[in-house]
Design a protein that fits this description.
Largest sheet: 5 strands, antiparallel
Distance between the termini: 26 Å
Bound molecules: adenosine monophosphate, zinc ion
Radius of gyration: 17 Å
Strand order of the largest sheet: 1-2-3-5-4
Structural class: alpha+beta
Number of strands: 5
């Protein structure tokens, strides 16, 4: 399905331009227009899924399989020292484009990017209970 007002649907089908690294019938990989680092790119399914809660698991699996190959290509060509894989779901989580996309962000020594957050203390009893409930819902 293609969503009329979705910028990444348009981009997926070549209706708006992108710097494409790779495409096949199901996916497009292209450079982020406002990159965090050199080589920052996005992988999208051509079908419209808003987020992780909507994407079909088989498509998500294939997308991640492709991500492993793209990550290796980026590393080989750009010589990055590491890589963050990021995938935001919902505005609270920083999602701004509501068509599923996986960020590949090559990292370089001294690039100054900081994804760190403050850690809290885990309540083990509460976590065990929640784990049980989630298990029943997977
Ligand atoms: P997110 O905040 O996870 O929803 O990420 C959306 C990303 O899409 C941002 O990093 C934007 O810079 C990027 N972006 C938005 N429009 C375009 C576009 N036309 N071409 C490439 N990247 C885009
Ligand atoms: Zn879309």
């Amino acid at each position: 399905m293609v969503k009329d007002d979705c910028i990444f649907c348009k981009l997926a089908h070549g209706e708006i331009p992108s710097t494409t690294i790779y495409e096949d019938e199901s996916f497009r990989v292209y450079f982020d227009i406002a990159p965090a680092t050199k080589g920052h790119c996005l992988i999208i399914p051509k079908e419209h899924y808003a987020d992780i809660f909507e994407i079909d698991p088989k498509t998500a699996g294939k997308l991640f399989e492709l991500a492993t190959a793209v990550a290796k290509g980026l590393k080989k060509v750009l010589g990055c020292d590491g890589m963050n894989i990021m995938q935001n779901n919902g505005s609270i989580a920083g999602q701004t484009v509501f068509h599923f996309h996986l960020h590949l962000i090559p990292r370089y020594e001294g690039d100054g990017i900081d994804f760190h957050y403050a850690h809290s203390e885990a309540n083990m009893e509460e976590l065990a209970q929640i784990a049980k409930e989630i298990r029943a819902n997977i």
